[in-house]
Design a protein that fits this description.
- This protein is mostly helical.
- It has 9 helices and no strands.
- Helix 2 packs across helix 3, helix 3 packs across helix 8 and helix 4 packs across helix 7.
């Protein structure tokens, strides 16, 4: 009797766990997740920030499970997946309009769509497209929203490439730098990832704060 090609443990991949995805699929998995999270509405739940950071860390060989990734291949996969995914999401929005988001039954997607539209209206196309990269769920739905709302293709492409490269390469290199400088850093991975997510939200929080202050100042001036 021949042994099975895959055991049950090999097939049990937790798509919400960055470590599980990387152990199962390596660099290829990073590219696929980046594409799905930024280009397909079904990918809104995927762990983009933590996956990029953890993958960068594993390029140093710091993982307890022995997984070590190639940094050049990882950077290429992360960038290509993130950029191609966003452009695909935009094209889907141009073709389908707002119909896809209107039919969704997911409260998270509906909330994300509202926040994405608010970003586009409040900050303009360029700033909103860049900021959205750092906000989970919003980075999934803003791309089709931009297409549905008629954001010019050239404007969208330029700024999604800029934001996508800063996001994907920045988080990956941050993980690599930390893994290279701190021995056994993977023991503290969960709190580190939590901090990374909070830091990734900082640009949006700062912009919202400045916007509210400008709004309050404007009201006082009119009063």
């Amino acid at each position: 009797m021949t042994a099975p090609l895959f055991t049950a443990s090999d097939l049990a991949v937790n798509v919400l766990s960055a470590q599980s995805l990387l152990a199962a699929f390596g660099v290829l998995g990073v590219g696929v997740v980046m594409f799905a999270e930024t280009g397909l509405l079904i990918g809104f739940f995927l762990p983009g920030d933590s996956l990029l950071f953890t993958a960068g860390l594993l390029c140093t060989g710091s993982g307890q499970d022995g997984v070590k990734l190639s940094l050049p291949a990882l950077l290429a996969a992360a960038a290509v997946g993130a950029l191609a995914g966003a452009q695909t999401g935009y094209l889907i929005g141009r073709k389908a309009g707002g119909a896809l988001l209107a039919r969704t039954s997911s409260p998270r997607l509906r909330s994300g769509a509202h926040r994405a539209e608010e970003l586009l209206e409040r900050y303009g196309h360029a700033k909103a497209i860049v900021l959205a990269r750092f906000v989970p769920v919003v980075r999934t739905v803003l791309n089709p929203m931009a297409g549905a709302l008629g954001v010019p293709a050239r404007t969208f492409t330029v700024w999604q490439v800029a934001g996508g490269l800063v996001w994907s390469l920045g988080l990956t290199l941050a993980g690599y730098a930390l893994g290279s400088s701190i021995p056994d850093v993977d023991r503290y991975l969960l709190p580190i990832v939590a901090v990374i997510v909070l830091v990734s939200l900082a640009p949006l929080a700062a912009e919202l704060y400045r916007s509210r202050r400008r709004g309050a100042a404007g009201k006082e001036a009119r009063g």
